[in-house]
Each structure stands twice: as C-alpha cells, then as structure tokens.
C-alpha cells in the first residue's frame, strides 16, 4: 500500500557478475534504509536521496564515486545530478575528477549557483571554492575497475555489450512526509568512454527528473540511448497522461528499446508514494523502504519484502538465490 515517506534506490542496470550479487544487493538495501531513517526523522526528500547516493558512491561495488569505471585513458570522470520537485531546481556536474562525492557537489551547484550544470575543471574549481577536498585519483580506482578496463581495451570488446555486462550507476527517488519529491543519480559513466564523454546522468530530463506534481525518475543504462529518448521526462510524460508508475516505466523502457535498442532500468515514484523499479536488462539491484518494510530485488519480477527493523541480513546469494523461496523473506511479484 502506498504511504509516505518512501525512498527507492538502484545500483545500476546490467548483468551483475554472480560473485558481486550479494554485495550489490546489500549496498542498495543499506542505502535505502539510510535514506528512510532520514525521511522518518523529518528530513527532506532531497536530504534522503543525497544521503542514499553518497553511501552508494562510497561503496566500491558500484560505478559511482569510488569504484567508478575508467575512461579509455585510465582516468576517472564522473557525472551526477540532483533535482528538487518542489521548485524544479536542479544541479549537476559532468566529467568531474578527484571528487569523492559528486552528488554532493551537484547539490552545491543547485544551492549555491545560478547554473544547472558545471563541468570538468570549472566544476573542480567550484569544489575548491566550496571547501570540498580534492582526493587522490587512485583512491577512486579499485582493482576491479582496473581489471575491467584492461579486459575492455581488447580490440574485440563491444563497448555497449561489455558495459551492459557490469554496470553499477546509482540513483534514488524519494517522497518525504511533506509530500515533496526529489531524485539523485551518480555515475562513472560508460566503461572505456572517451575522455570528455558526458552521458545522460547530468542532463536534466535524461538522467533524472523530479516534479512534485508528477513524481520522480532516476534511470540507469546506456546513456546515449537514454538521452535520445529523454527517458526520465518521457516516463513522467506518460504519468501525466494518466499512466500508473509501472505502466509509464514499462512504456518508457519499451520506447527506448524500440527506437534506439537501448537497455536500462529506472526507479520511479509518484506524489502518493506509489513506486516501481523496472528494467529491461538482465538485472538491476534495487531496494525501497516504505511503511516500515524493506523491499528489494535484482532479477526480473523478483521482489522480496521484510521488516526494516529485522537485523538479520539474508543469506549471501547462491546459485538459486534469485528463486522466490528464500529464508524468512516474503516474495511477491507485484512490482
Ligand atoms: N547511464 C550511465 C551513463 O551512460 C551508465 C549507467 O547507467 O550504467 O553514463
């Protein structure tokens, strides 16, 4: 049943390697819980999504902040965005380097400038002016990201397919107790992208959109495809036409597939607190918190539910872990 507050997070659409499934699932559950605690304490939807995405950026499992994929040259260039549904204020950064939490810098762009997006060196200069410390690039790079970069330097690697194999962009949408709506998305982008490539994430209407009158969307997937169909605004347009969150999400993803053969996923909320996590990739780690319940899943229609207070984490995922008959979790196919 829909109720407020609610937060839904994702950890990227793609094919998550078996060995990383439980880390991805644990990461999104932890982020959803942290955002929910913030919302229950009266925090704003904006505070909650930034809190959740900051945790995911700090978690090296995901392709955002520490753990970001590398460019062709082996550097880290990150994109992030936030949007506030009360006023349609938004802030973004693109191709930023040596910043631990691009989502927080995006929020500062929204709060402290009259611009919507700052890029590259200008964004770094702004970060310095705001007192945000520069971090060593190495601190953002993991052994796993180096391994993937090396593999993808192979001349036969297909950039879209190889990226779809291991994505982990992160995002969150939330509605707070006042009914205000916000979203945030953060990414290292596409594996082995050209330096200077900017994807969907920092582009308003593509990598995020929030409007108190309609709802909010945070997407993940092949950025060039998401941009061609302005996926986030497209889904909200369908909702404006009277579609449910689920219908609108599925229509948006279907349109992206039909028109540009793009794969990806989205988390969506509406002002009443109806929410959905949908994707047309093999997997997308997602989690939602609402009404004292934690919801989560990773494959297709998978949907586990348990009490948010329950301390016991589910068993690490095994070969059969995505079957609907797990331990104490209840499973429904409703999202
Ligand atoms: N959309 C992101 C980008 O293209 C990547 C992703 O979601 O995995 O930069």
Describe the structure.
With 335 residues, the protein is of the alpha+beta class. The chain has a single domain (6-307), classed as (Glycosyl)asparaginase (Glutamine Phosphoribosylpyrophosphate, subunit 1, domain 1), CATH 3.60.20.30. Helices cover 31% and strands 24% of the residues. It has nine helices and 14 strands. It has helices at residues 21-40, 45-58, 102-112, 120-129, 143-152, 159-165, 223-228, 231-240, 245-260, and strands at 6-14, 78-84, 89-96, 117-119, 170-175, 181-187, 209-211, 215-221, 264-269, 275-279, 283-290, 293-299, 304-307, 330-331. Strands 4-3-2-6-5-1-11-12-13-14 form a ten-stranded mixed β-sheet. Helix 2 runs antiparallel to helix 3 (102-112) and helix 8 (231-240) crosses helix 9. The longest helix has 20 residues, at 21-40. The termini are close together. 56% of the residues are buried. The model is unreliable at 316-335 (pLDDT under 50). The site of aspartic acid (ASP) has 14 residues, from strand 8 and helix 7. GO terms for molecular function: asparaginase activity; beta-aspartyl-peptidase activity. Its EC number is 3.4.19.5, 3.5.1.1.
Task: Summarize the structure in short.
The protein is α+β, with helices and mostly antiparallel strands and 335 residues long. It has helices spanning 21-40, 45-58, 102-112, 120-129, 143-152, 159-165, 223-228, 231-240, 245-260; strands at 6-14, 78-84, 89-96, 117-119, 170-175, 181-187, 209-211, 215-221, 264-269, 275-279, 283-290, 293-299, 304-307, 330-331.
């Amino acid at each position: 049943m829909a109720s407020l507050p609610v937060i839904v997070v994702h950890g990227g659409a793609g094919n998550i390697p078996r060995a990383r499934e439980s880390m991805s699932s644990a990461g999104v559950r932890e982020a959803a819980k942290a955002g929910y605690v913030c919302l229950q304490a009266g925090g704003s939807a904006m505070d909650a999504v930034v809190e959740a995405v900051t945790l995911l950026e700090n978690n090296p499992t995901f392709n955002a902040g520490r753990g970001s994929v590398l460019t062709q040259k082996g550097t880290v260039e990150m994109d992030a965005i936030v949007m506030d549904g009360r006023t349609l204020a938004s802030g973004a950064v693109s191709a930023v380097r040596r910043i631990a939490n691009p989502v927080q810098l995006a929020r500062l762009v929204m709060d402290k400038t009259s611009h919507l997006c700052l890029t590259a060196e200008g964004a770094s200069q702004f970060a310095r002016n705001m007192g945000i410390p520069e971090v060593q690039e190495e601190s953002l790079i993991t052994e796993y990201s180096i391994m993937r970069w090396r593999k993808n330097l192979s001349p036969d690697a297909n950039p879209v397919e190889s990226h779809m194999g291991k994505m982990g962009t992160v995002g969150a949408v939330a509605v707070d107790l006042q009914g205000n709506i916000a979203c945030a998305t953060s990414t290292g982008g596409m594996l082995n992208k050209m330096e200077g490539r900017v994807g969907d994430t920092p582009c308003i209407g593509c990598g995020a959109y929030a409007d108190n009158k309609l709802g909010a969307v945070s997407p993940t997937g092949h950025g060039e495809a998401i941009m061609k169909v302005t996926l986030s605004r497209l889904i909200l347009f369908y909702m404006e036409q009277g579609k449910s969150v689920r219908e609108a999400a599925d229509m948006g993803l279907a349109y992206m597939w039909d028109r540009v053969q793009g794969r990806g996923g989205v988390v969506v909320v509406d002002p009443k607190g109806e929410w959905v996590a949908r994707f047309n990739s093999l997997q997308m780690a997602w989690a939602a918190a609402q009404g004292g319940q934690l919801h989560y899943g990773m494959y297709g229609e998978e949907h586990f539910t348990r009490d948010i207070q329950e301390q016991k984490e589910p068993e690490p995922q095994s070969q059969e872990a995505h079957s609907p008959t797990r331990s104490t979790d209840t499973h429904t196919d409703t999202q």
